[in-house]
Amino acid sequence: MIGISSKLKDCITITDGKVQIKDSGKVRGLIDELIYEAVFNADEGQKNALQRLVIEIAKKVGAVPSSIQSLYEEMGKNYPGFTVPAINIRGLTYDVSRVIFRKAIEKNVGAFIFEIARSEIGYTKQRPIEYTAVVLAAAVKEGFRGPVFIQGDHFQLVRKNYLSDPKPETDYIKGLIKEAIEADFYNIDIDSSTLVDLERPTTKEQQRPNFETTAMLAAYIRDIQPQNITVSIGGEIGEIGGKNSNPDELRAYLDGFKETFKAGKGLSKLSVQSGTSHGGVVLPDGSLAKVKIDFDTLRTLSDMARKEYGLSGCVQHGASTLPEEAFHMFPETGTSEVHLATGFQNIIYDNKSLSSDFRAEVYAYIKENYAKEWKEGQTEEQFIYSTRKKGFGPLKKKWWDLSSDVKARIMKELEDKFNLLFEKLKVVNSKALVDRTVKPVIVEKKVSDTALG
Question: Which residues of 41-78 are buried (b: 16+ CB within 10 A; e: fewer)?
Fold first, then answer.
């Protein structure tokens, strides 16, 4: 059997580490096979070489990793009436990304983000370069052209680690930021809201560990970002699942950041807490409690962020499990970005075409390997629901190898969901504004000659 590297030699060349495309149609025809090899090759060096090859191929055919900074600067001056969906993909990443690109092309959507959080990078076993390669392979397959926004979500400092010894935790986040930017993530959300100290006497002093840490990490980003690219940086004032954010906290954080940060352009957006929790609240029978979002908080804080600080607005986390009728409220309240993850995971796991045997295999793996996370008083349904996100990474190949007809039925349901979200968030026909404000910069990177064998 001819390997993928041999087949690629007919349609691409690599000279001095630079990729040239001889036949883009043939490359598109081979991309399924190439990305599979890039994810599952047993040799770590070869795997990384193939992932970088995929990324450079995508740039050559017009799918370019980009910063959303200039669109968000425009939103800060003149809110366009839409909320940008930021989509975390934990499993079946290639197939799900293909659906998103296909729907974006059909609906003329330019404003959408692919993202992965610090925690997800770990438990889904998707390092930044792999995530970028898989997303961009999907863009190549679907023929998407234009900026592709890939984001590090919740690059979060773990409070107990930081309080024990700040340096290793800070160094870890710096290392993750560096890895992400090298993997063409040009959008980074810093979450040091975990460091807010409510024991301090004033709101500004409570927020000080948060804004000082954000400013330090933002300066680090500005120091290492590629030439001619301004990485879009997000901050956060309220730990998701905690009390709702308020105007005093927003001003204390943003004023403090402004006083501390002197390294160029600052934040483009601010994440706030308005009533959600990640993954939703699970009831004993495994169903979800209804979420109540304080849309007045979102409206007030987004308006302040834009008018007083020039930010694009506020960001809502943990929203994917909201009822469908709630999503139109995000653009109506001026929310600039909404983060969506668990709802897509639920569609994958709960789809009737997924065999009960395979689902049982995943759940058995979870019960065996994550038993320590089974909290006292949790029902089995609650434990499985809160932990099944960790069933994607270790069983990634089995998910990827599901039969095409099973995956097709899952993707149809996801396609309907993305269609609804693009409509409700009003990003349909946003491509013209994105094309006007975002000028993709190609950062060409060397591909190892070993990528072609």
Answer: beeeebbbbbbbbbbbbbbbbbbbbbbbbbbbbbbbee
